[in-house]
């Protein structure tokens, strides 16, 4: 698509028309900047901080990078019932806000791992809330399932 790390696309001659196929996954601002239609979520900040400070930091709007204060410690229950509950409203509000700016919302693509408390517990909570908020919209999950012989935590295969 040719979108640069700052969100601009030099080859885009149709600024503002949003007729190209990449506009399915990118919003185009009035200044010609393209912003991904994505929300990044983690219960602990270190991984998303890499995006906040990395090469593509100007591509994302800061509100789309949502983190909690502590991780779920590889525990489904912490991700779903305690730590995850602290940020779920913020996440759903951001998803709602982004979906309101879509002309023809078809559904959601959710990428996550089943290992750990965020990937299993929080994602379960998130899918539950998205189903309540957006009823019949498609929800496609792309999941990474941990292998017991290479898991970094003993409980990963059970989450």
Describe this structure in words.
- By secondary structure, the chain is of the alpha/beta class.
- It has three helices and six strands.
- The chain is globular and about 50 Å long.
Round the mean pLDDT to the nearest integer and report it.
Answer: 86
Helical content (DSSP H or I, runs of 4+): 25-40%
Distance between the termini: 37 Å
Return the string of H and E elements.
EEEHEHEHE
| Biggest sheet features | 2 strands, antiparallel
Q: Overall 3D geometry?
A: globular
Give the radius of gyration. 17 Å
Summarize the structure.
This protein is α/β, with parallel strands linked by helices. It is 33% helix and 16% strand.
Key features of this structure:
16% strand, alpha/beta, two-stranded antiparallel ribbon, 159 residues, two-stranded parallel ribbon, globular
